């Protein structure tokens, strides 16, 4: 039996990874800022982090924040993992972190480099956006009478449970370096996703596509965050919506 530490183990992805690994018979420790007995702020490190890693073979690093500090957190985690003699570090990243000049993406890419240069056996998986993140964005946009979306832009949402399964599989294997990306089953325009969300939640809103400017928009418009050649996910956006909100409209929207 392997002892595995999952950082961010109470989050949307980390919780599912933890469940998968435990169901496979592994001893799993959950590290997060508020989860005892391993309540640790990775940005601070310290003796609590060393205690969490004592005797750990594999680390699955899911903890992240868009408020900054991911690089410092990763550096502290890697240093502690080396001290503990961990042999495998698995990191979940995002498709396009090397192509989209968004601050959060740049931070994730920097962490990838830290992992690769850590001196520990490593595996990095990049995935497209989770369904629930797309819903969070659309919910915020739908608060206005008109849903304003970036024109000529698409997304490829993936089911988080499928990403968790893949991460658990990778954690139980040998270090594999950068593995193939994991994308959702369909590349969809934002307008198509918005209409599906509005139908599932019973909202009536006009959807307007507006051209934007800037390098980040151009990178998204060019599909830098997509992985159509790795559309290995199976759960569709409509299936996610039906499971979360109930089925209000039939059919699948494409485009």
Protein model, in words:
This protein has 255 residues and is of the alpha/beta class. The chain has a domain at 3-128 and 160-178: Rossmann fold (3-Layer(aba) Sandwich). It is built from 9 helices and 10 strands. The chain has helices at 12-23, 47-53, 70-84, 103-116, 131-141, 160-171, 190-201, 215-221, 237-245, and strands spanning 3-7, 27-31, 58-61, 88-94, 121-127, 146-150, 154-155, 177-178, 188-189, 206-210. Residues 249-255 have low confidence and may be disordered.
CATH fold-level name of the domain at 3-128 and 160-178: Rossmann fold
Oligomer type = single chain
Percentage of residues assigned to helices: 25-40%
What series of H and E elements makes up the topology?
EHEHEHEHEHEEHEEHEHH
Quick one: CATH class of the domain at 3-128 and 160-178? Alpha Beta
The CATH architecture of the domain at 3-128 and 160-178 would be 3-Layer(aba) Sandwich
Number of helices: 9
Q: CATH H-level name of the domain at 3-128 and 160-178... which superfamily?
A: NAD(P)-binding Rossmann-like Domain
For the largest beta-sheet, the strand count, sense and barrel status come to: 6 strands, parallel
Taken as a percent bin, the fraction of beta residues is: 15-25%
């Amino acid at each position: 039996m392997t002892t595995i530490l999952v950082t961010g183990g109470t989050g949307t992805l980390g919780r599912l990874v933890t469940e998968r690994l435990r169901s496979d018979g592994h001893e799993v420790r959950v590290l997060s800022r508020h989860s005892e007995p391993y309540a640790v702020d990775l940005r601070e490190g310290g003796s609590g982090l060393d205690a969490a890693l004592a005797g750990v073979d594999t680390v699955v690093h899911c903890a992240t924040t868009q408020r900054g500090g991911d690089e410092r957190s990763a550096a502290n985690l890697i240093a502690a993992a080396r001290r503990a003699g961990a042999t495998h570090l698995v990191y979940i990243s995002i498709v396009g972190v090397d192509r989209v000049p968004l601050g959060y993406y740049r931070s994730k890419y920097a962490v990838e480099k830290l992992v690769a240069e850590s001196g520990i056996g490593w595996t990095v998986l990049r995935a497209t956006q989770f369904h629930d993140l797309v819903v969070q964005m659309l919910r915020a946009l739908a608060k206005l009478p008109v849903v304003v979306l970036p024109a000529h832009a698409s997304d490829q949402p993936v089911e988080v449970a499928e990403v968790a399964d893949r991460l658990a599989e990778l954690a139980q294997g040998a270090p594999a370096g950068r593995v193939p990306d994991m994308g959702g089953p369909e590349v969809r325009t934002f307008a198509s996703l918005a209409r599906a969300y509005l139908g599932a939640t019973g909202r009536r809103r006009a959807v307007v596509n507006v051209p934007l400017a800037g390098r980040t928009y151009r990178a998204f418009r060019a599909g830098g965050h997509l992985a159509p050649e790795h559309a290995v996910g199976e759960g569709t956006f409509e299936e996610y919506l039906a499971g979360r909100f109930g089925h209000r409209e039939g059919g699948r929207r494409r485009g």
